[in-house]
Design goal:
The chain has 129 residues and is of the alpha+beta class. It has helices spanning 11-22, 27-37, 43-58, and strands at residues 62-70, 74-84, 93-102, 107-117. A hairpin with a 3-residue loop joins β1 and β2.
Length: 129
């Protein structure tokens, strides 16, 4: 549409049309928006994705994340899940899984690193590993 003003058109209509045209996205605006939408996921997004992906693969819901760190390849987490529910609850079997994710938060691997009764403490060293 040409940016010429119609002398018969009221001034307020011309101003409205001009302001609408000035708000149309340009190539540089579109590039900036696509860069913003392609941003890296936040730590909370990574945690949510890891819990969801692990639950989908194992069929067990994550109860807590006990370790979370960024690595050269992406992310490493230790996630605790309820493997076998028992009564009383302190006798339920828990498991701790080491979960690896790439930098986009996609699960690349996991393994169970320990299994224990909920009510028992262990003699493992501190630091989640």
């Amino acid at each position: 549409m040409a940016n010429t003003k119609d002398p018969d058109e009221p001034l307020s209509s011309q101003e409205t049309r001009d302001s609408r045209e000035s708000r149309k996205p340009t190539r540089s605006t579109k590039r900036a928006e696509s860069t913003r939408t392609a941003k890296r996921p936040t730590a909370m997004e990574i945690l949510r994705q890891a819990r969801g992906q692990l639950a989908e693969l194992t069929g067990m819901e994550a109860e807590s994340v006990t370790s979370f760190e960024q690595t050269d390849e992406g992310w490493a987490l230790e996630v605790e899940v309820l493997e076998l529910e028992r009564v009383p609850d302190t006798m339920s079997l828990m498991a701790s899984y080491q979960v690896e994710l790439d930098s986009d938060g996609q699960l690349t691997g996991y393994r169970r690193v320990r299994r224990y009764e909920r009510g028992r403490s262990d003699a493992r060293r501190s630091g989640g590993r």
